[in-house]
């Protein structure tokens, strides 16, 4: 309590800089959320509520584990027709040949998504989809393994916790320190997405039904026929050669040169550092005046001893007090080349991962915030943490920019326009389905935790499916299947760290698309492009979490963000859907 009171005294002194105010507010917020302003009796009551939440979350996790164990199922060779090896490797025991088996369906996202996208057996797709959407649902009530009651307990107790802490709802507690700032702002964006994409998705589903030649397009048919149509429209066999134009080292160096052009920084390779593997690369990032801003370690290639995902980690934050320089690590999953005559090349997903992780790393390394807590994006508002990487991704995917980063591994020529446009088109094929689904899940996340949004607060376990059904009909132009209770496995918002924050990904993409429009407008004017790049560096890349993200955006763009650039890519699709 004495430390809390000391912080309050410092905060109220009026002698703090903006960065210091942000830092003090960060700690005050944590103190308040842990009951610093409560009496001892109130703290004990709060502790009991938090314990109840923990118990309900354990129950939720146990129910998921039970559902997962019951989902295991052996399949024979006839069932795996059409499923690629990269999916089959998740379906065999460790050390087994994915081409020979034995295979079994395991509760892994890659397995479920792979079966729904590639399996030629409609019965396998149907059984897999139904198992996936009904896990830990009402059918498990008799076994006491349904998550319907656990969800009710988590939501109700989080609401009690929030009101005890002085908030109207759990949503208000979570959104207190976000860029969006309020539920109304988020709902406004989600409604705009829904209004823009609902008819487009409806048209896409009707198109898939015609393409499938089936009287009825079922839920488990959507991804399968979407993928078949994708192959037919964009000739995926030809697009296999896309990666030949993006050898890793050349793409990396081209990206570094683009950063020099836009932000005035340079990358200097170091060979004097010890690393954990011979393939690890080390680069110092130098400011325009030659000073070292920080060091980045890149571990580019996939290995058995690495995680099966790409990621970045901050090794050391900037601190003016401790006089530290920044250090960050990036781990990628690029397939290494075992052919000495051909370098390792990057698939589209590899390029996406490289840019996203480099964006986060640059924001951490180039930060000028004097305190480690405010350096980079570690303590930044959660819905602003990915704005920089998504902005860079938007800039990279401008066809002229994307092409300039390409170089065939043997001839050195840039990728032909037709092949590049086909790859971009393939990536965006029926993308509205995915975006609308994410908007639906974001709305559902908020709905579960609100007293009044589009409906009512969950007062009984039985009302949970009602909320899901109501929002589903608002967002998804396809009949709700009677077995669909996917909310029972929506662990991100119940036992993960994204409760009331699932919208953050869409929000970051929306803001990033707007920020990237500044680069697109001046792309062909070198002088103006340099000015936009410098402005982006002086705001997004150097301010870190030291400045409120709304202020950062306004400083960069001179106005508040608008969703129009994010939604604009669907304009042509909207016109087609409306005409039909």
Automatic annotation (TrEMBL):
Family to which the UniProt record says this protein belongs: Belongs to the peptidase M3 family.
Molecular-function annotations in GO: metal ion binding; metalloendopeptidase activity
Keyword Transcription: no
Cofactor, how bound (note): Binds 1 zinc ion.
Zinc in keyword set: yes
Protein name as it appears in the record: Peptidase M3A/M3B catalytic domain-containing protein
Gene Ontology terms: biological process: proteolysis
Transmembrane segments: none
Lineage top rank: taxon: Eukaryota
Pfam families per the UniProt record, alphabetical: Peptidase_M3
Alphabetical keyword list: Coiled coil, Hydrolase, Metal-binding, Metalloprotease, Protease, Zinc
Cofactor: Zn(2+)
Coiled coil: 36-63
Residue ranges of every copy of the Peptidase M3A/M3B catalytic domain listed in the record: 116-570
InterPro entries (UniProt xref): MetalloPept_cat_dom_sf, Neurolysin/TOP_dom2, Pept_M3A_M3B, Pept_M3A_M3B_dom
Listed PANTHER family: LD37516P, PROTEASE M3 THIMET OLIGOPEPTIDASE-RELATED
Lineage: Eukaryota, Metazoa, Spiralia, Lophotrochozoa, Mollusca
Signal peptide limits: none
């Amino acid at each position: 309590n004495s430390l809390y009171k000391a912080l309050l005294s410092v905060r109220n002194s009026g002698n703090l800089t903006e960065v210091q105010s942000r830092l003090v507010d960060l700690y005050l917020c944590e103190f308040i959320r842990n009951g610093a302003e409560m009496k001892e009796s109130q703290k004990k009551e709060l502790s009991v509520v938090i314990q109840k939440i923990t118990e309900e979350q354990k129950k939720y996790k146990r129910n998921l584990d039970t559902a997962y164990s019951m989902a295991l199922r052996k399949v024979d060779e006839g069932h795996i027709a059409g499923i690629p090896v990269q999916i089959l490797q998740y379906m065999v025991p460790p050390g087994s040949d994915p081409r020979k088996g034995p295979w079994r369906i395991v509760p892994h996202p890659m397995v479920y998504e792979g079966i729904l996208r590639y399996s030629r057996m409609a019965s396998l797709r149907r059984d897999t989809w139904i198992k996936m959407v009904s896990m830990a649902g009402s059918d498990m009530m008799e076994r006491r393994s349904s998550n319907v009651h656990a969800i009710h307990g988590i939501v109700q107790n989080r609401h009690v916790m929030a009101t005890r802490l002085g908030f109207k709802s759990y949503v208000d507690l979570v959104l207190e320190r976000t860029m969006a700032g309020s539920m109304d702002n988020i709902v406004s964006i989600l409604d705009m997405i829904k209004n823009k994409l609902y008819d487009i998705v409806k048209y896409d589903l009707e198109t898939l039904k015609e393409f499938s030649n089936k009287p009825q397009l079922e839920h488990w048919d959507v991804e399968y026929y979407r993928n078949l149509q994708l192959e037919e429209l964009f000739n995926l066999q030809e697009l296999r050669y896309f990666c030949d134009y993006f050898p890793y080292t050349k793409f990396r160096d081209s990206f570094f040169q683009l950063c020099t052009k836009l932000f005035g920084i340079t990358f200097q390779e170091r060979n004097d550092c010890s690393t954990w593997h011979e393939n690890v690369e080390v680069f110092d990032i130098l400011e325009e005046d030659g000073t070292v801003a920080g060091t980045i370690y890149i571990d580019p290639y996939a290995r058995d001893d690495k995680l099966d995902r790409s990621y970045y980690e901050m090794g050391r934050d900037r601190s003016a007090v401790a006089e530290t320089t920044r250090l960050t690590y990036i781990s990628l999953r690029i397939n290494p080349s075992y052919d000495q005559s051909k370098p390792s090349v990057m698939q589209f997903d590899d390029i996406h991962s490289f840019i996203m992780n480099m964006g986060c790393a640059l924001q951490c390394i180039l930060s000028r915030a004097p305190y480690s807590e405010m350096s980079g994006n570690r303590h930044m508002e959660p819905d602003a943490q990915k704005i920089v990487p998504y902005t860079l991704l938007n800039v990279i995917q401008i066809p002229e920019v994307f092409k300039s980063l390409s170089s065939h591994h043997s001839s050195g020529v840039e990728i032909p326009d037709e092949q590049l446009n086909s790859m971009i088109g393939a990536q965006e094929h029926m993308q509205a389905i995915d975006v609308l689904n994410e908007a639906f899940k974001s709305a559902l996340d908020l709905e579960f935790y609100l007293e009044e949004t589009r409906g009512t607060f969950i007062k009984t376990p039985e009302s949970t499916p009602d909320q899901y059904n109501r929002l589903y009909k608002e967002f998804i132009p396809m009949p709700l299947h009677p077995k669909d209770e996917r909310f029972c496995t929506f662990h991100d918002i119940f036992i993960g760290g994204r409760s009331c924050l699932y919208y953050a990904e869409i929000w970051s993409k929306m803001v990033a698309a707007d920020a990237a429009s500044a680069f697109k407008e001046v792309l062909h004017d070198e002088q103006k492009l340099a000015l936009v790049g410098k402005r982006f560096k002086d705001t997004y890349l150097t301010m870190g979490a030291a400045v409120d993200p709304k202020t950062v955006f306004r400083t960069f763009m001179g106005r508040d963000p608008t969703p129009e650039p994010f939604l604009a890519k669907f304009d042509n699709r909207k016109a087609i859907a409306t005409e039909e």
